[in-house]
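Task: sequence in, structure out. Protein: Acyl-coenzyme A dehydrogenase.
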Amino acid sequence: MSFRRDTITKPIFALARGALPAMSDTEREALEAGDVWWDADLFTGNPDWSKLLKIPRAKLTDEERAFLNGPVNELCAMLDEWRIFWEWRDLPQDVWAFIKREKFFGMIIPKEFGGLGFSPYAHSEVVRKISTRSIAAAVTVMVPNSLGPGELLMRFGTKEQQQRWLPRLAEGRDIPCFGLTSPEAGSDAASMIDTGIICKGVFEGREVTGLRLNWHKRYITLGPVATLLGLAFKAYDPDHLVGDQEELGITVALIPTNLPGVEIGQRHLPSMQVFQNGPNWGRDVFIPLDYVIGGQERLGQGWKMLMTALAAGRGISLPSLSAAGAAYAARTTGAYARIREQFGISISKFEGVEEPLARIVATAYQLDAARRLTCAALNAGVHPAVISGIMKLHATERMRIAVDDAMDIHGGKAVIDGPQNYLGNLHRAVPVGITVEGANILTRNLIVFGQGAIRAHPYLLDEINALADTDRERGLAAFDKAFWKHVGHSFRTLFRAFGRSWTFGAFALAPDAGDATPFYRQLSRYSAAFALCADMALLTLGGALKRKEMLSARFGDILSELYLLSAALKRWEDEGRPKEDFAALQWCMATGFKTIENRLAEILANLPNRFVAVILKLVVQPFGARVLGPSDRVVHQCASLVLEPSAARERLTPDLAYVDDDGGFARLERAFKLVTATDAIAKRMRAAHIRDWKDAVAKGVITQAEGEQLSAAHEAVAEVIEVDDFAPEVLSPIYKKTGDVHQFFQELGEQRAAS
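Result:
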């Protein structure tokens, strides 16, 4: 061992040590935040499927289920999204009071501090359900339970801080927000210019050591109404009051917004969404050191704290909203396509409609599968950083596609705004989810693979830590151990990838999963190909790989597909392998395999080392990218899942916030039930070539009761197809004087003629 280390490893160690790029503190802290989980298995190139299938399903307790069936349903019944958006531009006061009283802001806070003590899955289910009724209400509820003072206090706060602040947050006596983004620093936290200078000052009548803060933050959700601001800033100690260092680094602290110098700005209007959001400033705001979350010992540890909290938060809130959006799009679009006729037949019969409808259905199936699997990890106390990034990125991106498809199928019904439009506001809200909690462009190009390659790889992080060790001998010993394990792993992966690629995965490891068994084999094949190509890219490019953003994005896409497809298989297994849902699973697999093969082809076409690229192509893709996506038969079967009342339709779109009022969604549900219930009656009339139901009754084709039932269905469909219109003075104050747009323009023309 010592011979190998001193004669072979040592020069490699020296070469790698010289080539290792410098890593900033924020980069290192981001890498070290959170945990690895199933992503690490995927990175081995030989995932243990039994491990995946043994993961306990995320479930609700009786108390959590009662909350969903009680306060959550009550809240949804109180919400009128059109009036919230168009008239009030805010949640009404009775809704704010209800949210506080029922402790929606304290879902994640333990019961010992007055909170509800709910699991991550319960948190996800609540956000999911409210999202299908009101985006503004969902965002208002999700933010205090995601990245913010509550989460940070629970994980890092001192006992005194927890006892003081958590009960106030749980009961709604304080409304929290978190200030991270500033004009100078969005995704690039290292550029933050918000500062906290350690100094002496007077606080509540006594002189203490504290921080004098100056900041400017924007895009802060709940900022305009917050009473407690979590703040990220750079701390400095020029007078060495707490230690020898002058630059302490990013720090997070609690700032009551009534302190002198705190200024709350006016509201932003993000994509016409009316949840509270706005800027704030602090000018020479003084706080004692015990307002730093975690106390003095946490000075300079803020970025790692934030990244650790974000590893959980990004896996819940926006994925829940996105899964809700896709399920909502599937249910409404399936119903609308079923009841809407053109050229004398339901538009659901058109293949041009079936294709996007199938995409919506399969997206809803896959996103909820991934949401549940991620929540299972969070329920078990795991905080999967890479997977949370995958979830935020792909959940919001796929929601965007699903909602766009839904808009296309609905046509003018979804374009014309008004109280009966049940899709328009969701469509407007999509860019917000794409942008916040780490913009998707950044997440795809830099984070998913950039972080995953180091954290989830079996040996790479150990090698990097060994190379960075200030004790050269200790670092060499650690590097020798990790490096040769890595070499052995790479050779095993090479032979595994070669065998599986040339046999099309026929002999790859897979559990006995019935009709889904071949899918596991293909994922084992692609996992090996991914692991080998990733290793070779890291070997040939080294630290330069992080600057090859397009390559990194493609690797990230493959890792993401491996996770999302794993989640879909897990869902199908957990639900008892329902045959009716198999088409949705097939669509997900065929589409995911196509993406993986295309990304592999793109990587091999663009890898700078062409010799290695040619060898890799012979090993992992000797016959090129061959998967074409789902067949027309699968598309047809997948689309049909939401065209009739069925158990499959309910599994796909469970527990949406359905309120039986006169809103657009309720009208659609009623029409769908009536149309599907009268389908046999309508078929008899078509067979008899009779259009008027009264004629059909007179000729004995249908009974009077059947005719009346059919008439009710026609009336219900007409109500759904109808869109809103408005008096001119309702839409614009210009016309309020006359109330008649024609008269207004006539008078305007006369005035111009006279002048």
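The first helix runs from residue 2 to 19.
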